[in-house]
Every structure is written in C-alpha cells, then in structure tokens.
Design goal:
mainly alpha, MetI-like fold, 2 domains
C-alpha cells in the first residue's frame, strides 16, 4: 500500500508570530486616534501591545484556528464596547477574528504551504509582499468610492464624518438623504397630503432617474445592434481595411470626451437634434458602440466559422443562420457589451452638459447641478445607489464572461 506524505513546514520564531499581528494592532491604534496627533504615539503603543500580547496568548494556549478566531473576537468585542461603543466593539471584533486565525496560521508555518518546500525566506517574503502591494493598490483605488457609502447615511448635512459616526453611534446615522431623493421638489402641502401620487411629475431627482433609464435603455439597444453587426462584419477575413475601420469605430473611446461632445453639439444643432431626447440617445449610442464592438469581437475570436458554413450547406439563409446558429453562441458577449454601453450612458455627464435641456437632465447632470448650486448630502445617497447598480451590472458581466468561456470550452464547467 502506497504511503502518502504531507509536507510539514517549520515553525517560525515567536517574534515573527507576534510581530505581524502587533504591526496590524499599531495601525488599528493609530486609526482609533481619529486624527488627534497628540494621541498617535499612545494609541500606537497600546495597539501594538494588545495585539502582540493577544497573539502570544493564542500561540501558547489555543490549537484550533476556529476557536482562536471566535475567542479573540469575543474578547475584542467586550474591550471595544467598554472602551468606546458597541459599534466600535463590533468593528474591532471582526479584526480580532482575523488576528486569532492569522496567529495560528503563522505559528504552524502553514503560510508556506502555498509555495514549494525549497523556497527561501526572501522568496516567501516577496510572495506575500507582492500580494500586500496589490491589495494596497486596490484599496487606494476603491477607497474614494467606498467612502461615499457611509457618508450617505450621515444624520447631519455635512460631507465629512461626524464624531458620532466615527464612534459608530447609531444616533449619527440616518436614511434622511435617501428619503430626500423622493421628496425633492415637493412643497410642504404635497408632502403632507400624499406626495407619492404626485412625485413623478414634480420631483427633480425622480425625473432624472427616469431620464437616465429611458435614454440609457434606448441608447443600449441602438449601440448593441450597431456594434454587434459591425463586430461580425469586421471578423470576416474578406473584409477590406479592417484595422482602419476598427480604429475609426472605437475612436470615441480615445478622443477626449469634451471634443466629441462639442462636435456632436455642433452637428446636432445644425439638424435640429440638440436639446432633444433623440439627440441624447444618438450621442450615448455613439459612446457605447465601441464597447460593444470590442466585447463582441473578443467573443468571435473563438467562434467556429464552420458552423455557419454547415448551416448554409443545409439551406439556411443568412438571417436564419445568424439567429439560430451564431447569435446563441455569441449572446454572452453581446449582452456584456450591452451592459457596458448602458453603464457608459448611465454615468455620462459631459455630453449631457452640452446637449441636454432642463427636461433631459440625467442623474449625473442633476448631481453636477447639485454640487454647483445647492450642496446637499442627497448627492452622496444618489452616488451610493449608482455604485450599487454598477457593481450589480459588472457582476452580471463577469457571470456572462464565465458562461461564454464554458460554452466555448475554455474553462471547466
């Protein structure tokens, strides 16, 4: 009977095991100081000692990672609640759960299991340093977006965190700015006697939402149809000047948007489409078509053209071949391109500034107007909703991409 051997990595020294949690604790301590520079040193030392001491106790008395995580989380919950508030206790409890599990992960040497046994200390250090650097870059890019979400629940009309929010006091949070999205533009009698029935005619924000979806949906349909047909034509070998045509079609992605908007305004003003819904839909379709072309073209790279030739040999015409053979296989790419086109239209503001009238204001245009004319945290609530919508749409794009790869045999099912 064949024996199986498991590589058991060497245990690191005590200083290494408690040093990394201690460094994380020092960072948490400095963040707890809430910007008071006179307290930085004291909180730095306190966080370092508490986290390093906790790691030393876990290393000495606990064997299971799950037990270590929950034990440290419970201890930090009690300590954080006694020191500040229940909200702060919950936050540090989450950090404590990670610290408890990470301590045993470091103590047992399991951090080396992802690498060959012969890896040197320098190679292990670079392996994890590279991931930490990538994580820091990701945090740097995503923080300006994520920071809007808690600010949108601010009880006070400020664009900054109040002391109640920093201490995670429930009294500092509110949904008032989300309700303001619905009530904006209403008079007091309307709000008191049934504002819901009349808000669709009077609310500025609701009209902007309707315009954004109306323009975005029609622009997406138009850009998806044009972009799909263009991508199919450019994928054929007999198509002349393919690279030149492709460069022209995707130029709206490269040319500065303000130049494109100025050109569209000059042209549409000559033909009577400026300040109209039709002009905005056509303009957004121009901006969204390059995304459809690129996405569908990437999907057609793995398409087997022998399927269309076989359909033609069986007597199917071009339209029947397209809708029965080709379209089902490239549908994930088409839908992905359409979602990109919709996001482009939904978030666009430069073209709307030049082509839209008061009645055609979209959500980004209304936000721009709110920032310049009347500062209100309602803008933060709208931005949070847009972020959530974008995340959902991009998640759907990723699901369609994986489905497309499975259908083409590029990844396991």
């Amino acid at each position: 009977m064949k024996k199986s051997y498991r590589y058991i990595p060497p245990q690191p020294p005590l200083l290494f095991t408690i040093g990394i949690p201690g460094a994380l604790g020092a960072l948490v301590g400095m963040m707890t100081a809430q910007g008071d520079k006179s307290l930085y040193f004291y909180y730095f030392v306190a966080g370092l000692v508490i986290f390093a001491g906790t790691a030393a106790l876990v290393r000495q008395f606990i064997v299971s990672r799950k037990v270590a995580g929950w034990a440290v989380a419970l201890g930090f919950l009690v300590l954080g609640t006694a020191f500040a508030s229940l909200g702060y206790g919950v936050l540090v409890a989450l950090v404590g759960y990670v610290i408890g599990r990470m301590t045993l992960w470091l103590h047992t040497g399991d951090y080396r299991l992802n690498m060959p046994p012969y890896s040197t200390t320098r190679e292990v250090l670079w392996f994890y340093s590279f991931r930490v650097i990538c994580g820091m870059i990701f945090v740097f890019l995503i923080t300006p977006i994520i920071i809007l979400i808690p600010l949108s629940f601010n009880q006070e009309p400020y664009f900054s965190f109040t002391p109640e929010m920093l201490s995670l006091d429930p009294a500092g949070f509110s949904l008032r700015w989300y309700w303001d999205i619905l009530k904006n533009g209403m008079t007091a009698p309307e709000a008191a006697t049934g504002w819901w029935a009349d808000m669709w005619q009077n609310a500025q924000w609701v009209r902007s939402v309707k315009n954004s979806f109306w323009i975005g949906i029609w622009a997406t349909i138009l850009s998806t149809s044009i972009g799909t047909l263009a991508a199919i034509g450019l994928s054929r070998d007999e198509m002349p000047y393919r690279r030149l045509i492709m460069a022209v079609l995707i130029s709206p992605m490269i040319v500065p948007l303000v130049i494109t908007a100025s050109g569209l305004f000059y042209f549409f003003s000559q033909v009577g489409l400026a300040k109209t819904y039709t002009g905005l839909i056509l303009a957004h379709a121009v901006l969204g078509t390059p995304f459809v072309i690129i996405t569908v073209t990437a999907t057609l790279v793995g398409f087997d053209n022998s399927l269309t030739r076989a359909a033609a040999n069986m007597g199917a015409g071009p339209f029947r071949t397209f809708f029965k053979v080709q379209m089902p296989l490239i549908l994930p790419g088409v839908v992905s391109g359409g979602l990109f086109a919709f996001i482009t239209s939904f978030d666009e503001v430069v073209v709307v500034l030049q082509l839209a009238d008061v009645q055609q204001r979209t959500i980004p245009r209304q936000m721009f107007s709110g920032i310049r004319e009347q500062i209100s945290p309602t803008i933060l609530a709208v931005a949070t909703i847009l972020v959530i919508i974008s995340i959902l749409l991009l998640s759907l794009v990723e699901m369609l991409r994986r489905r497309s790869e499975r259908m083409r045999g590029m990844s396991p099912g």
